[in-house]
């Protein structure tokens, strides 16, 4: 087998990896890189037409956003993914087309994508010519998967985005009994410094901060990825409001989060058993909580921004690269009583990263905005931290080689150095091909 890297190597974004044999070529993920400018996998359209199958680990745009272009370029095969991933991809792609309107995509390409999904189940092997493929729970978002590929002689395990710890929604990645000759792993938080604070401590600190802002009469903006982080944040808020330890104020839910919430609810069988039982054995459904107020019309945003009462606004996008959050920043950033709480990864070049680094003046929709509101960061990551990555690597039997992708180059290189005494470890560059 050969492994070729067309995106996501030495960076976070546009994940795209090819595994090929003499008979078969499959693509693992096909994402876009969002930021000040959009970037796409560096794979030619002619090569795309030679692909036999595309396998998608999960529904985030940096792993699936390039799919419409693949079909626009003439790809005629199938996209393999779990049921929740397929449903979420459709929503994400629709929103992405509306906001970005990429020039490399046609209406026909999108229509062909919608007709070309093949749903796969966890832990059930499927055959793609001379390759055997298996999707394994990854614990990142609902439906997310690690993908194991074998040609009968060698095997490759690709993590996609992975998380080993249990959350309010999901069990951690299933790493028991894993065996593979080769591992391709993400490294978003692979530095020795990347050891996450316990969720209980983060929740306590975040709760205190939100209550302080509400007591001052301010509003709290929580930008979030529509899929994954938003659901964790909303269930966190709902739990604490219901228990009485958080002040009861409206929790406005804006953007694509509302559609994603419905998909999560429809696919609750993929969530933790405890959450399923909570819904099935009681009258309470946290996905439909009365504490949440969906923002169903743009006209509501003006009312939310100007009303006297305090509120919490959970909205897209997570890195402030577009979406309703830009409106709320333009209306609320000048008031020091308000607060923004960042809960996810902020890539270089994004507005979220600039605010996190302390910028007090930003440009939103061509206008210069003075940022007087506080900006805080509470790390609610769905990625593995360094301890989890160490556990993942040590859990895989027969492992010989590790390719480290999806991370800032310094973090990936640090991780490579730390494990190179035991494994052949690589930090590939885009365009590199390796035979395994």
Q: Structural class, from secondary structure content?
A: alpha/beta
Number of strands: 22
Number of domains: 2
CATH 4th-level superfamily of the largest domain: Ribonuclease Z/Hydroxyacylglutathione hydrolase-like
The fraction of residues in strands falls at: 15-25%
Physical arrangement of strands within the biggest beta sheet = 6-5-4-3-2-1-22
Integer-rounded radius of gyration: 21 Å
Question: Could you tell me the mean pLDDT?
Answer: 95
| Tally of separate helices | 14
Overall shape: globular
In helices, the fraction of residues equals 25-40%
**Span between termini:** 6 Å
Question: How would you characterize this protein structure?
Answer:
- It is a single chain.
- This protein has 436 residues and is of the alpha/beta class.
- Helices cover 31% and strands 22% of the residues.
- The chain folds into two domains: 2-193 and 382-435, Ribonuclease Z/Hydroxyacylglutathione hydrolase-like (Metallo-beta-lactamase, Chain A); 199-377, Rossmann fold.
- It has helices spanning 45-48, 61-64, 67-72, 83-100, 107-114, 199-215, 229-243, 257-266, 273-280, 299-306, 325-332, 351-356, 386-395, 409-419; strands at 2-7, 16-20, 25-28, 53-55, 78-81, 117-119, 126-128, 131-137, 145-150, 155-158, 182-186, 219-223, 251-254, 292-294, 311-315, 339-342, 361-364, 367-370, 374-377, 401-405, 424-426, 433-435.
- Strand 3, helix 1 (45-48) and strand 4 (53-55) form a beta-alpha-beta unit.
- The mean pLDDT is 95.
């Amino acid at each position: 087998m050969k492994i070729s890297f067309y995106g996501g190597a030495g960076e976070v974004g546009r994940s795209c990896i090819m595994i090929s044999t003499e008979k078969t070529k499959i693509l693992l993920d096909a994402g876009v890189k969002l930021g000040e400018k959009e970037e796409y996998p560096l794979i030619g359209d002619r090569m795309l037409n030679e692909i036999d199958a595309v396998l998608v680990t999960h529904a985030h745009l940096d792993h699936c956003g390039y799919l419409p272009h693949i079909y626009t370029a003439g790809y005629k095969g199938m996209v393999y993914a779990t049921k929740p991933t397929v449903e979420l991809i459709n929503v994400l792609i629709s929103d992405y087309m509306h906001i970005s309107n990429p020039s490399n995509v046609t209406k026909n390409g999108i229509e062909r994508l919608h007709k070309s999904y093949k749903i796969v189940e966890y832990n059930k092997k499927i055959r793609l010519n001379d390759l055997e493929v298996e999707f394994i729970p990854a614990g990142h978002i609902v439906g997310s998967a690690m993908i194991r590929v074998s040609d009968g002689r060698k095997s490759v395990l690709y993590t996609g985005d992975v998380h080993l710890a249990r959350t309010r929604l999901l069990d951690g990645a299933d790493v028991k009994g894993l065996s593979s000759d080769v591992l391709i792993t993400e490294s978003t938080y692979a530095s020795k410094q990347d050891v996450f604070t316990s969720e209980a401590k983060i929740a306590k600190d975040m709760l205190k901060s939100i209550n302080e802002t509400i007591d001052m009469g301010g509003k709290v903006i929580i930008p979030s990825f529509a899929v994954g982080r938003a659901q964790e944040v909303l269930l966190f808020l709902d739990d604490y409001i219901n228990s009485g330890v958080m002040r009861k104020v409206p929790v406005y839910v804006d953007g694509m989060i509302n559609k994603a919430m419905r998909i999560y609810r429809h696919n609750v069988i993929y969530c933790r058993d405890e959450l399923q039982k909570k819904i099935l054995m009681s009258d309470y459904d946290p996905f439909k909580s009365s504490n949440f107020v969906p923002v169903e019309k743009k006209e509501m945003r003006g009312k939310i921004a100007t009303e006297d009462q305090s509120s919490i606004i959970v909205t897209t996008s997570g890195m402030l690269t577009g979406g309703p959050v830009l409106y709320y920043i333009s209306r609320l950033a000048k008031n020091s009583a308000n607060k923004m709480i960042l809960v996810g990864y902020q890539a270089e070049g994004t507005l979220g990263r600039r605010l996190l680094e302390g910028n007090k003046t930003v440009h939103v929709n061509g206008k210069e905005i003075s940022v007087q509101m506080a900006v805080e960061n509470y790390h609610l990551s769905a990625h593995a931290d360094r301890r989890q990555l160490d556990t993942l690597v040590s859990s895989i039997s027969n492992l010989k080689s590790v390719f480290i992708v999806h991370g800032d180059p310094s973090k990936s290189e640090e991780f490579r150095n730390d494990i190179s005494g035991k494994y052949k470890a690589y930090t590939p560059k885009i365009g590199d091909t390796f035979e395994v």
